[in-house]
Specification:
The complex is a heterodimer. Chain A contains 42 helices and 16 strands. Among the domains of chain A are: 8-101, no CATH class; 436-599; 741-861, Immunoglobulin-like (Sandwich), CATH 2.60.40.1230; 865-962, TATA-Binding Protein, CATH 3.30.310.10. In chain A, a hairpin with a 2-residue loop joins strand 9 (841-848) and strand 10 (851-858). Chain A is an alpha+beta fold. Chain B has a 5-stranded antiparallel sheet, with helices on both faces. A two-stranded antiparallel sheet of chain B has the order 6-7. Classes of the chains: A alpha+beta, B alpha+beta. Chain A: GO terms for molecular function: clathrin adaptor activity.
Chain lengths: 963, 144
């Protein structure tokens, strides 16, 4: 190597750099720089034409100043002049300056383009590379226009030097990214793919980046790259450590190239061709085997390079998710790394295992490492590694280990770093909810969570525990007792006071029998926290007090006294004051009956997806929570809420509340019970505290939760099954045919009444519905996801064919204008006249940015919505069952279960169907039997259902009889 | 994909920065300060990968010089970690025992080397001899 002189002859530059280095303070540095800038400016403006050397020197100084973090607003022209120099060094500095300092919309681009054009046609490979690097770095539209035709030619020409090919490949990639419309690959495709076969490894390395990007965009056109990549990989993997000479890095043959090849393969599904697949599996096995061989060098570089390939191979194995053998081997390999002394490896192993945990083939294998991972959570000294361990625990959690994992996470929370506490809290809350079979465990867990990390418990978490306690009457007594005990602690978190106030206000009576938690004791306990709390909590507590007056008349005088005190009734906070005044008045003038009606126990919450999951997802950004997980969460969430919501029950409460003659009912925001959207958001009494909050947020939840992927593609622009059909502007005014997946969307709602019916990039349609007898009411929420308004928004509901005589559907008109980000609501009334099998169609038309959008969906109205559950004893059931023996009265279907059968999930689904689930009726406890009456205007049809899951074969025969 | 590469000394002064996606000048200084603070605060036994906003940082320290590479989430960390080492080895080979001063006084050459190795955020060349070839050709030209 030549000894390199400092500054390489540019003495002025070296002096300047030394000066800067010697500056004692930032001010001195700025002063020196300003002096230099003035000097350079005067030189550039001077009359005397500068020679190439001086120009280069000054441009170089400017570059240096820029890199010190100072803006440079001149010298561009001089740099462009340097481009046309014949001296390589001058040209190079010119290009460097432009790459670093010129942005893609500069006015100089045309001049630069000229210089580039000259260099590209110079046939001098060094000049060509410089020019190509410049295009790759700047990559403006004008450059694409000028060179998009030229570069593919350079890339595939037989006589192009290797180094030029490399630059050309990356250059083309840049142009393709910035202006894909200008880069027409058609004729070059196959020749570009064949660069994978190039004998020069550098060319292959560069070309893969281009091919990977192109494959992601046009997988079909580039799919021949799979077999080429496999054979290239196979040659590298099987080569001896010295075969590849300069491309061998610490005895590892071409590590970076191998990683890139493995990454390219991750753009495609497993190869269909058996031979190719066999070869690839062989490669992957070899890579896994090599990990077990003794290292060829003790240097860390050797093992790092080897492991880089190994991790990429494991990513590919996980991506394929089809080779159980490889998945389990990968898991074992990662298991070894979990205990490796290199922190980097432990970190990567935890991260990689997280994705393995979601594969059905390796989930069990991952679970075997639970002790190691828990240990990592406890002992790792690096917070980012601990974070990964927590992620992995979350990913490997299932019903079998939930209690252990939640316990460990809780105990870790006591000492966890502040940076990850909030996320940990959300995760614990989600796991506790998802895998709660035993609701007292769930309540314990959440209260512990509040106790340990109260500050990090977001509103969603404590709303959720209240929703669940309200909906599950088997846990209410326990919850009251536990929260009462938790409140005994001298210092307890405000969130605990909120939960305590709410739960005791609702269910304090369940523990009032015990003299240790008599009504007055409960009240005094709550009130002892009052002065420590913030205004919203105090407001909630006041509402709890008025509920106490209803629950326990003996507390009335004590509580009235509290309400009457100056600190309440003259409180400077208007909300608190108003509550104190109103509650005091209510308690003194309303009769016990009225009081009891107004302050009735909260009705169950409608089924909704866990808001916590949405929050976690938002926090971590897309990708952190997989769609699978979300879907699972939805399913399990539904189960927790006690299955399908009983719309009938709810609306019964609503009507009874609404018809209460007391004028004070309005004060409490009870004008309307469910549907929650109608609850007055401002009144903010206890009765609506959580409810109205939930009601308001609910739509937010719906919006936050991404729907499963199948519905998230842009469907508007695409005709049914035809990706390159007409653009939206020429969509006809006739109602579009129903979306191809509308049946699937419909099926999602068979067992539930609320959720997201449809979503694309523009529009989200949420749905809430309730049914009673043969009547139904559906609320559709049309959310504009864009920032642009939708105009001439209109919807029509039609009943095709004979459905017209079976179903009577009336829709209220909807606002014709939806502002960006806004949501409008539409009410649809449904009357079932007689039995039916089709679903009504909902057509939606609106203009978005001038283009007509037209789509048709099926409204999720199915016959089972009109079920009324019927309880009956075993004897009655089988008697009726036997009576229904005519062929037309019976239908039987045997089908394979799509998911693992979980009793709780099945129960929830059956309840969602709307029939009564009859316990202790069938002699075989594995079987489920249900009974219900379908209510139509014309007739009532009794129905019996029997579900016989066969676990071994996972077939589920269903017997269904109709009367 | 590689988003940026920084060479910073222990005092937090940037000696070289190369961005592979447009970052406003005003934001660069803040980003660099943030990144460097984050990496320098870490102890030796902590792992070399840090999550930072949408990026993942891969860093490696050589004496007083810290090299930090910001990559996208899906990039292979170990391969970037070794890429940094390969880069340093190339610098070492060219400058024969590279120091912070060499980088300061020969910024243009370090950029040439980097451009030979990484283009557009992607690895183009890993072979040391080929990385140095254009630079050596250049030196020959100036000598003669």
């Amino acid at each position: 190597m030549p000894a390199v002189s400092k500054g390489d002859g540019m003495r002025g530059l070296a002096v300047f750099i030394s000066d800067i280095r010697n500056c004692k303070s930032k001010e001195a540095e700025i002063k020196r720089i300003n002096k230099e800038l003035a000097n350079i400016r005067s030189k550039f403006k001077g009359d005397k034409a500068l020679d190439g050397y001086s120009k280069k020197k000054y441009v170089c100084k400017l570059l240096f100043i820029f890199l010190l973090g100072h803006d440079i607003d001149f010298g561009h022209m001089e740099a462009v002049n340097l481009l046309s120099s014949n001296k390589y060094t001058e040209k190079q500095i010119g290009y460097l300056f432009i790459s670093v300092l010129v942005n893609s919309n500069s006015e100089l681009i045309r001049l630069i383009n000229n210089a580039i054009k000259n260099d590209l046609s110079s046939r001098n490979p060094t000049f060509m590379c410089l020019a190509l690097h410049c295009i790759a770095n700047v990559g403006s539209r004008e450059m694409a226009e000028a060179f998009a035709g030229e570069i593919p030619r350079i890339l595939v020409a037989g006589d192009t030097m290797d180094s030029v090919k490399q630059s050309a490949a990356l250059c083309l990639l840049r142009l393709y990214k910035t202006s894909p419309d200008l880069v027409l690959m058609g004729e070059w495709t196959s020749r570009v793919v064949h660069l994978l076969n190039d004998q020069h490894m550098g060319v292959v390395t560069a070309a893969i980046s281009l091919i990977t990007c192109l494959s992601q965009k046009n997988p079909d056109e580039f799919k021949t790259c799979v077999s080429l990549a496999v054979s290239r990989l196979s040659r590298i993997v099987s080569s001896a450590s010295t075969d590849l000479q300069d491309y061998t890095y610490y005895f590892v043959p071409a590590p970076w190239l191998s990683c890139k090849l493995l990454r390219l393969l991750q753009c495609y599904p497993p190869p269909e061709d058996g031979a190719v697949k066999g070869r690839l599996v062989e490669c992957l096995e070899t890579i896994l085997n090599k990990a077990q061989e003794p290292p060829k060098s003790k240097k860390v570089q050797h093992s790092n390079a080897k492991n880089a390939i190994l991790f990429e191979a494991i990513s590919l194995i996980i991506h394929y998710d089809s080779e159980p053998n490889l998945l389990v081997r990968a898991c074992n390999q990662l298991g070894q790394f979990l205990q490796h002394r290199e922190t980097n490896l432990r970190y990567l192993a935890l991260e990689s295992m997280c994705t393995l945990a979601s594969s059905e083939f390796s989930h069990e294998a991952v679970k075997t490492h639970i002790e190691t991972v828990i240990n990592a959570l406890k002992t790792e000294r690096d917070v980012s590694v601990r974070q990964r361990a927590a992620d992995l625990l979350y990913a490997m959690c299932d019903r079998s280990n939930a209690k252990q994992i939640v316990a460990e996470m809780l105990s870790y929370l006591e000492t966890a770093d502040y940076s990850i506490r909030e996320e940990m809290v959300l995760k614990v809350a989600i796991l506790a909810e998802k895998y709660a079979v035993d609701y007292s465990w769930y309540v314990d867990t959440i209260l512990n969570l509040i106790r340990i990390a109260g500050d990090y418990v977001s509103e969603e978490v404590w709303y959720r525990v209240i929703q669940i306690v309200i909906n599950r009457d088997d846990v209410q007594g326990y919850a009251a007792k536990t929260v009462f005990e938790a409140l005994q602690a001298p210092a307890c978190h405000e969130n605990m006071v909120k939960v305590g106030g709410y739960i005791l206000g609702e269910f304090g009576n369940l523990i009032a029998g015990d003299p240790r938690s008599s009504p007055l004791v409960q009240f005094n306990l709550l009130h002892s926290k009052f002065h420590l709390c913030s205004v919203p909590t105090r407001a909630l507590l006041l509402s709890a007090y008025i509920k106490f007056i209803n629950l326990f008349p003996e507390t009335k005088s004590t509580i009235q006294e509290v309400l009457r005190s100056d600190s309440q009734i003259r409180n400077s906070d208007v909300e608190l004051q108003q509550r104190a005044v109103e509650y005091l008045k209510l308690s003194s003038i309303a009769s016990t009956d009225v009081l009891a009606t107004v302050l009735e126990e909260m009705p169950p919450f409608p089924e909704r997806e866990s808001s916590i999951l949405a929050k976690l997802k938002k926090k971590k950004g897309p990708g952190a929570v997989s769609v699978n997980e979300l879907e699972e969460g939805k399913r399990e969430g539904g189960e927790l809420n006690g299955g399908g919501e009983r719309g009938g029950d709810n609306s019964a409460i609503a009507t009874s509340n609404a018809s209460t003659p007391s004028p004070s009912a309005d004060l409490l925001g009870l004008r309307a019970g469910p549907p929650v959207t109608a609850a007055a958001p401002s009144a903010g009494s206890l009765l609506v505290d959580v409810f109205s909050e939930a009601g308001v947020n609910d739509d937010g939840f719906l919006r936050d939760l991404e729907p499963p992927t199948e519905s998230s593609d842009s469907l508007l622009a695409e005709g049914p099954g035809d990706s390159d059909s007409a653009p939206p502007s020429v969509v006809s005014e006739d109602p579009a045919p129903p979306l191809p997946e509308s049946n699937e969307l419909l099926n999602k709602f068979v067992c539930k009444n609320n959720g997201v019916l449809f979503e694309n990039q523009l529009l989200q349609i949420g749905i809430k519905s309730e049914y009673r007898q043969n009547l139904g009411r559906m609320y559709l929420f049309y959310g504009n996801k864009t920032s642009v308004q939708f105009v001439t928004f209109s919807t029509t509901v039609t009943c095709p064919g004979e459905l017209q005589s079976q179903l009577n559907v009336q829709s209220k008109p909807v606002e014709p204008l939806i502002e960006g980000g806004a949501q409008v609501q539409q009410v649809i009334n449904i009357e079932c006249l007689t039995d039916f099998s089709d679903a009504p169609l909902l057509n939606i038309k609106f203009r978005y940015g001038g283009a007509l959008q037209n789509l048709t969906l099926k409204l999720p109205v199915t016959i089972n919505k009109f079920f009324q559950p019927t309880e009956m004893a075993s004897h009655d059931f089988f008697q009726r069952w036997k009576q229904l023996s005519l062929p037309q009265q019976e239908a039987q279907k045997i089908f394979k279960a799509n998911h693992a059968m979980d009793t709780e999930v099945l129960k929830a689904k059956l309840l969602g169907l709307g029939m009564a689930l009859l316990e202790n009726v069938d002699p075989n406890p594995e079987n489920f039997v249900c009974a219900g009456v379908i209510q139509t205007k014309a007739q009532q049809v009794g129905s019996l259902l029997r579900l016989e899951p066969k676990r071994a074969s996972s077939d589920v025969p269903i017997n269904r009889a109709q009367q | 994909m590689i988003k940026f590469l920084l060479m910073v000394n222990k005092q937090g002064q940037t000696r070289l920065s190369k961005y592979y996606e447009q970052v406003e000048l005003g934001k660069r200084a803040a980003l660099e300060a943030d990144v460097v603070r984050g990496c320098l605060a870490r102890r030796k036994e902590e792992c070399s990968f840090v999550e930072y906003k949408d990026y993942k940082l891969v860093y490696r320290q050589y004496a007083a010089l810290l090299i930090v590479v910001g990559v996208t989430e899906n990039e292979n960390e170990l391969s970037i970690y070794e890429l940094v080492h390969n880069f340093v080895e190339v610098l070492d080979k060219y400058f024969s025992r590279v120091s912070e001063l060499d980088i300061m006084f020969n910024l243009d050459k370090v950029h040439i080397i980097l451009d030979e190795m990484i283009l557009n955020g992607h690895i183009v060349e890993t072979n040391k001899n080929r990385i140095l070839a254009p630079l050596l050709a250049l030196d020959k030209m100036t000598e003669s």
